[in-house]
## 1
Amino acid sequence: MNDNRTLFVVLIGFFCMFSIAMVIKTIRNYYIFKASFYTEIYSGLFEYITRKKSLKRMSQSYWLERELGSHRIMYQITKTKYENIVQPYILILLTTGLYVIQIHNESAHYICHQGTLKKITENKNKEKIVQNLPFPISEFKNFQYHFELLLDNTVIPMRYILAFTDHSQLDIYLKDISVIQKKQLIQTIKEYHLQSKDVYSKEDIERIYYHFTKKIF
């Protein structure tokens, strides 16, 4: 009798500890999700959690399938020649081409001035800190060159997008590059997608994605 009661208490304790751990993990995933651009890519936290452990699973989204049709999502990180800055990209391949999204996930005041992108933040003493970032046009051209080289010099029609957090202040005006905040991401892509002619079929998208994964993974 006592042995059964002891076992029951142990099981209850284990269950409580497991439940607490799962709640903490879910809360942590929620804050990571909300602070990222994944909120615009996936239908919600549950889809993100079920896909995040595999880049192959993350390459598709229920939300994008509904809004944009056949697609593949690719994630890339490059290191710029300029001060070795690590730069993340989200690539969305649709029937109308590849949408190359350069991600700036830190809220700040961004200014494009004399061929340089400047990021202005404040420290704890409210003193301004100015950081020079690589010029977006040069970075996009460099990215396109290396991406097409990766695909054996296959020419890929690309649309460039600079994406910032919703709390960023933007003073950037660039020709042929969309400058947007996070909440505008999918609507911006959707507008271009609907106005453009198809250049790929669903089979083409899968073929390009397969070729990409062979070189990367």
## 2
Amino acid sequence: MTGDELMYRLGFAQGEEVGRGRAEAEMQREWSALAEKVKATGRALTAAELAERRRPGGPIYEARMRRHGGREYRGGPVDFWTGQPIIREESA
């Protein structure tokens, strides 16, 4: 093996090491981001828990009633500031 071949092989090996380190760092970042999404999903409320909160007497229902002045919300559109329904006049 000549000196040039040796230098080439050493340089190639060093390049592989640097590339492998970069790839491992990138995979670590990607997996960390995915792990955070999975953890957030695990902390989310189930459909049954949300339904319980929305039922009459539940905290979401009570907050909704306070926002709408004790009235059931019947649908939009509503005025941003007052929360009152916007009534459109029928065009002839």
## 3
Amino acid sequence: MKAFKVYDMDRMGYDGGVKYYRRQRDAERDFYDRVRNNIKHLPLASKNDFDGGRPWKITNKHWINGNVILAASFNYWEDSWTDCGTEYDIERIEFADELK
């Protein structure tokens, strides 16, 4: 039986928010809903903040250890508190729609 897995991956490589679907159309709908949600709610980096590219992108990929149909990545600002004060850095989050 084919199943489609939609998940997000944090900066440490752990996946979360995992959902499985039988139909590819349902998985893709969830994928694009997550993309739209991140564009609206994440403090995305601007072109001048990192390498002049877009702060988010969707790609069609195929990984060796699994068939990833779609992947999206977001570069956004994340703040953290340290002994020296608040530090800001650009983090990356990924979503993938994977065939299992």
